[in-house]
Request: fold
Amino acid sequence: MTAMSDTATTEPAGSEPEVVVHADGLSKTFYDAGRGAVEAVRDVSFRAHRGEVFGLLGANGAGKTTTMRMLSTVLTPSAGDARVAGVSVREDARAVRRSLGFFSASTALYPRLTARETLELFARINGFPSERVAARVDALIERFEIGPFAKARIETLSSGMKQRVSIARTLAHDPPVLIFDEPTVGLDVLSALALQDVVRELRAAGKTILFSTHILSEAEKLCDRIAIIHAGEVLVDDTLDGLRARTGAHYLEDIFVHYVRDADEGARRALEERTARELAALEG
Amino acid sequence: MKSRRISWPEIGLLYRSEVRAALRERGIVVQSLLVPLALYPVILWLLFTAMTFVRGQQDAAPSRLVLDGLPAAQAELRTRLADDERFELVEIGEVQSGAVDGVREGAVDLVVHLRAAAASTFIADNFVADLTYDAARERSATARQRFEAELETYRSERLEAAGLQRGVGADTWRQVRIERESTASDVEMGAYVLGLIVPMLMVLMIAMGCVMPAIDTTAGERERSTWETLLTMGVARTSIVAAKYLYVATFGTLAGLLNLVALSLSLGALLSALGGGDALEVRLPLAALPLIALGSVLLALFIAAGMMLLAAFARSFKEAQSMTGPFLLLVMLPVFLTMAPDLHLDARWALVPIANVVLLFRDAIGGVYHPGLIALVLGAQALAAALVVQLARWVFGFEDVFTGSYAGSLFRLLKQRLRARPRIGSTP
Reply:
């Protein structure tokens, strides 16, 4: 047992890795007073396995955060479903939330609670057994070197300290699935590297990690599988080697550009064809 | 969909966390706890002390008076005024700009021009007094009041003397005399004054006690980016809303009850300091306290739901303050309605939220208890609170409102709902 995992997670030798997150045709449509219906995510499907870092790579506005929010049940899918640790996000959102830890730039900490109170609250509220909460919190405090400021209020901490508490908060209830949504946005280089180390440790502990980013080098270094998402759609989903084999390109940057340009070109052609058909219909 | 159910352990955890955080927020502690308990009696005391000081200053300042055209027969009036330290007689010649302009400019407070009146068979040397003063200036208005009172005394004494010379007693020439007697005891008068003051302050303090927590727990969370953190917690959303609502209502109730304690301890002393305590016996009857406490809880439940309903649409603290401001005024409106003369708690008023509780408080302070009306008031107020809670639940059921991405107001949402806009994503 470690701070990264309170439970043993071993896969039988030679068996197929267990699918822990299964997104199946996820779509999300928002209604905007000015723009009407906006399709932010369309028919997104993928599978993430135990002990795997699954990367969702896309430009800003590609639909990464909306997808992550649907998986974490912050948003309800307009269509499709996803199962997280065997539970449908549509059928039992609460159970899904208890089986995952969500970390993003927009999930801040409660400024008036202390670091220890924060970890205790998140462990308890997410259903971690009461009798083990204190030991779990101690382990996290030790792993993330929170001890010297464990009794200080969050509002008094530096941003580096807050980041450590925030990661510990995400792991407080020892969830099997972790979602990191653009976790290194706004972090300095050393903090970003420290976070990457945490992700590797979690993978080694058998956690399933969904990692969304627009930083190609980060995805290249961390992710076992990468899905490239563009304009709300997943264009491809494979290992880095698989993506190289498909495109003949070595660098992820070239692979990314290959797929995104293809998609944009396809979209442009489809638009031209549709316009031509409509014009023809009008003239006819 | 399993997670719409209420879980009391979850609510308890969230509630305790909210309260703990709130007790560490200076703004909430000051506005919801310290102001009703301590600051507010102190502020009232300071206010009353300042008023007393100002009144004392006004009383101490002599009224500068120009007495013009005094008939020789009334020389005694001049002597009386000259001997009275409340007056300072000023000669016309001393006022360079002239007597009337002197009043306008504040050099003198009152110009009295005396002229002969029509001859009377009863009294000789009758006169008319024309007073020139500045009603917009406190010292000038006071000078007029003082002079009129003095002149009335002088007039009565002259009439009495003239009557005695003719063998007519004062009772005969006065003909009509007023004798006053109030049936209200000192205790009843105290209850009357308390009945006017206490309910108004209670509603105000409960509303003030709800404002900061309601804003802090909705718009404040969005502003601090903790709202999304909350949404990823493994709890039902109904539990989140319920915990927040109970937290806001708790602080509203606390503000009301602390205010009640402060009023019980300080109001008598404050009114006595003002001079009102001489004629009144100001004390809150113990028997009324449980009913007032229960009414305060119901008021807090109603106001908390309304505040949260409005604050839910705000994305920043300032926006929420603007949205809840009009609600504060709206809450006070029924209180002012109850100040209409001859208005008493009856079956009709028992159904009007807030006004019913205010009238119930007033009756309880006056020692009037009608079990039927009490039950009706409490039931009606509880129903009103339940309706607002239901409306809040309905509004929070909209995913875009709950997640904070909805850009409109409550009224816009209601309008859209009437147009059957799709209810997008009722996330559990």
Chain B has 15 helices and four strands.
